Target: Putative membrane protein
Amino acid sequence: MLGLGIFGWIIIGGLAGWIASKIKGTDAQQGLLLNIIVGVIGGLLGGWLLSFFFDVAGGGIIFSFLTCLLGAVILLSIVQAVRK
Model:
């Protein structure tokens, strides 16, 4: 993993979770804490999925953000599908 530390992952996860909630239209339902949680879990999900295709460990901060964003969008899509 990158040497971002816990605060780096919270910031990247929060930003990715917020943008993903804007993309999926769930921003009004979520607060800051849920955006951070969705982003961090999305980062884990995205990192796991992308590890089959790329070397995610050496991707850098931009790749980490895009990984979190992709995973957060997938996670929100799954949550929306389960709710319906």
Remarks:
- Residues 6-83 form one domain.
- Residues 60-83 form the longest helix (24 residues).
- The chain has a mean pLDDT of 83.
- The CA atoms of residues 15 and 43 lie 11 Å apart.
